[in-house]
Specification:
Elements (H helix, E strand, L loop, with lengths): L2 H4 L3 E5 L2 E5 L6 E4 L34 H11 L12 E10 L18 E10 L14 E9 L2 E8 L12 H8 L15 H9 L4 H8 L13 E2 L4 E4 L5 E10 L8 H10 L3 H11 L5 E9 L1 H6 L19 E10 L4 H6 L12 E2 L4 H18 L77 H8 L3 H16 L4 H14 L1 H11 L37 E5 L6 H13 L3 E6 L5 E2 L5 E2 L3 E2 L10 E4 L3 H7 L3 H12 L4 E3 L4 H6 L10 E3 L3 H11 L6 H14 L7
Parallel strand pairs: 14-15, 14-19, 15-18, 19-20, 20-21
Antiparallel strand pairs: 1-2, 2-3, 4-5, 4-12, 5-6, 6-7, 8-10, 9-10, 9-13, 10-11, 11-12, 16-17
The protein binds CIS-heme D hydroxychlorin gamma-spirolactone 17R, 18S.
CIS-heme D hydroxychlorin gamma-spirolactone 17R, 18S binds next to strand 5, strand 6, strand 7 and helix 10.
Length: 714
Amino acid sequence: MSAEAQRPRGTVRYGDVEVERGIGGDTHQVAGPSDTILTTQQGTPVGDGQNTLRVGNRGPAALEDFDFREKIFHFDHERIPERVVHARGYGAHGYFENYDSLADITRADLFQRAGERTPTFVRFSTVAGSKGSFDLARDVRGFAVKFYTQEGNWDLVGNNIPVFFIQDAIKFPDVIHAVKPEPDRDFPQAQSAHDNFWDFVSLMPESMNMIMWVMSDRAIPRSFRFMEGFGVHTFRFVDRGGRSTFVKFHWKPKLGLQSVLWNEAVKINGADPDFHRRDLWHAIEAGNFPEWELGVQLFDDDFADRFEFDILDPTKLIPEEVVPVRPVGRLVLDRLVDNFFAETEQVAFGTQNIVPGLDFTNDPLLQGRNFSYLDTQLKRLGSPNFVHLPVNAPKCPFATLQQDGHMALVNPRGRVNYEPNSWGVGPREAPERGFASVPTAEAGDKRRVRADRFADHYSQARQFFLSQTPVEQQHLVEALVFELGKVEREEIRSRVVASLRNVHEPLARRVALGLALELPPASEPASPPRSDLPPSPALSILRNGPGHVRGRKLGVLVSDGTRADLLAVLAREVAERGAEVEIVAPKVGGVCLDDGSWLPAKQSVDGGPSVLYDAVAVIPSGEGGRALVHMATARDFASDAYAHQKFVGYAPSALPLFRAAGFGDRLDAGFVSLEGGSDVTDFLDACGALRYWARAAGAVNEVERRYGNGESGC
Ligand code: HDE
């Protein structure tokens, strides 16, 4: 019997499409819900999409097979260069709703009318990793927002950290080269924990404030939905009379701030490298549209002169306690992209995309960015007509006299493609309505210099560290020890610690001890660090926790025989609080509950480790609990939840598992026994704190006691 004849006949299903196996398996007919005919790009209906045109059954392919050639040609060109930085990103559509008219401060059209909605597209990203890297890298997150306003597109291309590594754009290629995989070996991917990055940092003290931020939990957010965003630079609002007010932009997540632990991040990257993008996709798909409030810090020249740092210096922030953040509107992400490539990959942000009513300042980083973003889009998208792509095109009327070039979709119509012209047609400039720069007086010698007021590199780094809770400070120390521990050359570690001594002496000592490094002399600061800046509570994540579980996910580990009534109460109350339950079971098919009903699971235990959840409940049956003891992944589920200071709701039948996981005799107040409805309420109330930090406090106090004074006892 021939091989063909042995193949099964009939139909097979791929999703909702039914495929009929052809005679001998050579041809396939597709019958699905769609009656759309498959065509080539030229619109020619395709007769056979399964086989190339060839001479004889086993003969060579024919060059005239235009369908094959078109398909492969297009496939070969599917990739465009990924972004040099911020390559890995995820986008969504939404709108910005303006609270009140800001006409007294800016003439920007989107801020004129209370309640008006402006369409937006947002792309979140990591900086260092390539497009296929994992989501939970320790890294800055990009927070880029395109507002399609009625007077043009405004791009607020920000980050989730309000300061930056460098003060001058000319250093950008250096800091990025240093953090990216090392050029000879092409590793490590998406990690700052290597010699080149820390070598650069150790020689660039201006990066020290940013280093505090990236070593803090800000750099490992729980998801995009739980992080802040910042415009970083000082910009200008400009009113109708041409009066300008300085402005710094902030995004505040409505669901509150939240991060994960480093040990958790490492494990999440293995369990679900798409953790952040999946979270955003899932939330929007479920109708839980994430929201941020746009806030502005407004100040004038007087304040700028009085403030202790230069407001043009992007390595400094203005504490919210000094200039309060005024909420002016909200951003809601309510629509997923139809196609990742067409929208998220091809979206072209640019700091130079600005509208009347806004203006730049002389921040040297911003000035450099205004050149870079336009330049990079040409490389990436390959044509000066990238604005013709739907995701980049303005949604207001627009009319330029630009024409031609690769992929020109919107050339000027008619005879006139220049101005001025005497034809009486075509677009004209609008002196009143059009964009006008603030006429600032600029003078000085043309030189390569940095302003003296940029010289203090340590005071705000210290202020940031002292604004953190002890738990957060401990995380920061551990991050520095981890990262520097990956640095092979000891002199680099030593130089970083020498810089840290200018930030905060006990911090430097704790890091030195964590590295078993002899404390080096402090480096010579360009300007003496100040120790009189008061802590800014707004800089701490934990001091600004949500106090609720809205938007969070509870992982519930069940087994055959789990109590159906308890699960029902738990699921109902979690849903009432705007959170979500995900069922984890020994097998993904599900379990049979004690009332005989079948409960499908979302994850099997090895596919749903506890690192994927904000809190967990472990409620097996008695027999199920004893069986879980023998599953290494179930023991990990429990021990990780314990180690990551999660709240754990449990049935008594979970105790054997907890004992097997090594902490059964140490259940603290973060463990809530679940018997009935009121226990569930207590448990979920407790979960509002997100973590039971007291579990770690013992360890932190011990570290403080032993190392706080910098003595190892050796
Ligand atoms: Fe960027 N940055 N950047 N950057 N940046 C890019 O533009 C650049 C900086 C930021 O989701 C690139 O389209 C220079 C600060 C985000 O598509 C490139 C300097 C901040 C994104 C570029 C900076 C950012 C980018 C690469 C120093 C926070 C992703 C691809 C002067 C305020 C946008 C691209 C997206 C992307 C240049 C510093 C944020 C190469 C020269 C500071 C969120 O043009």
